[in-house]
Specification:
By secondary structure, the chain is mainly α. It is built from three helices and no strands. It starts with a helix and ends in a 9-residue tail after the last helix.
């Protein structure tokens, strides 16, 4: 579906961007959570963090009363 395609594209673009900015990726992936787990890729985790933030900010995610 269209939303899924856009999220995959966002992830890929974020991963490309953070691959060129490893310090930024590490900051996003660790602050405020703490150190990366052994073997974790900061670039990958930063891209997923960005996608997760987008999902959490969708109207569909918010509970309406």
């Amino acid at each position: 579906n269209r939303e899924q395609t856009r999220l995959v594209k966002l992830y890929e673009q974020a991963r490309e961007q953070y691959a060129t900015q490893p310090a930024e990726a590490k900051l996003l992936a660790t602050d405020p959570l703490g150190s990366l787990p052994d073997g974790a890729d900061a670039v990958d985790l930063a891209a997923w963090t960005l996608v997760g933030n987008v999902l959490l900010n969708l109207d569909e995610t918010l509970a309406r009363r």
